[in-house]
Every structure is written in C-alpha cells, then in structure tokens.
Mediator of RNA polymerase II transcription subunit 4
Amino acid sequence: MQALETTLAAFQEHTTQLFNALNAQASLVVHDAQARDTSVAEHLAALEKLDASLGPTLAMAATHQANQARLNPLLQEVKQRDAQQRDAIAEIASMRGELQSLLQMGEAERDEMQRAEQNPLLYKDVLHYAQRLSKYTAAPPGYRLEVQNEGVQSNGPAVRLAADYNQQAARAAGYYDPAISSMAQDLPYPSDRLMRQGILYADAAADGVQPEPGQGSAPTHDTTEASTAHEPVPEALDAFAMDDDDAFDLDLNP
C-alpha cells in the first residue's frame, strides 16, 4: 500500500506540473519554444513510466486486500484465544489460592495431630467428656417420657418415669443441651411408641405372643414392677401405612 501511495503521489505531481507548463505557453516567447517542448516531454515521459509501474502496484494492492480478508478471521480467533487464555490464567490463580488454603489447613491439622500424639491425654478431659456424654446415653436431649395411660391397670399409681428410665437420673429428665436449645424433644428422635414397636416386637404382636425380656426392650426396674399387671398387646405396625410419626421408624430392639 505504501508503494501505491508513492506512485499516485508522483503521478499527481507530474500531472500538475504538465498542466502548469501548458498554461504557461502563452507567456513564452518564440526563442523559448524549445525549452517549453523539453519540459512537456519530460513530464510526459515521467507519466508514462508511472503508468507502466502503476499496473503491478495495483495488482499488488489486490493481493494485499485478499490476504487482509484472510487475516481478519484469524485475528478474531487470536483475540478469542487471548481471552480464553486470560480466563484460564485467572481460574488457575483462583485454584492456586484454594490449594494454598487447603495446604495451610492440612499443615495446621498435621501440627495439631503431632501435638496430640506427643502430649499425654489429661484425665480431666476424659472425665469432662464422659460427664457430658452421660447425659444423652440413656435418652435424647430434651426427651420426656409420656405419663402412663390411666386405662392401664397397675398395682401402684401411675408414675412419670425419668428420661433414661432411672429414678436416680432426675437431672437428665427434660434436659436441653445449650448448644441445641431450640431443638424439639422428639425430633430427630423417634417417639416412644415407635421405639417400643420395632420389628421383633411387631412380629411377636402379630403372632399374639408377648416378647420375652431378652427379645424386646431390656427390662428395667419400673418395667419389672409393672410386669405383674395385665397389659394389652399393641397392634403391629403396618409396613405399608405410615404417618408423620413414622418418618423416623427405628428398630431399637436387640
């Protein structure tokens, strides 16, 4: 394109000078006619040379335009590749940050495990853990056993059992863990009816046989005293009929 611009500029310059020479013919005298013809001939010869070189220059310009048309899609593809490369670099940098955080967490956990292996376990920690765990080993946090039905005949008056069926564990009855004080007393634990009607108990009830102490729930102090009273056999749970209370049906029988 630069060669074409140079050729056109020279062509324009010689054309302008040729017309200026022709316009100045009237002011020239006779003895200057030879000089006038020489100037016009020089401009004409220069224009002929420029015209001869203009053809190849135009062909070169056409080739350049064709090449430029082929380069335009390639340039767009290069821009897209550059954008993808920048996105990949940003994603890799983000992943690097996450890996570094994981590495730091792993190193911190490794240091903690090494300290735990090197330092002896204090008995105070064990006792504290056991004391906290003992509150929930017999019953869920916040669990309250329902009062016995008045229709059931028994030798003594109806009593309200403690949460873990231990008369000595009065503190555990109705206990709520401060960490989960907003949790209901039943959920996510099954109700007392579901705990007493497991698979083994349902099979025994379907056969019309009361389960033995070894097959059903473990005998306790209160259940032993009430064993002399006649208790109706509860109906077996229907395996295909479930209600909202059966959502957490668990078989707690051994």
Remarks:
- Residues 33-118 form the longest helix (86 residues).
- The radius of gyration is 52 Å.
- The CA atoms of residues 95 and 101 lie 10 Å apart.
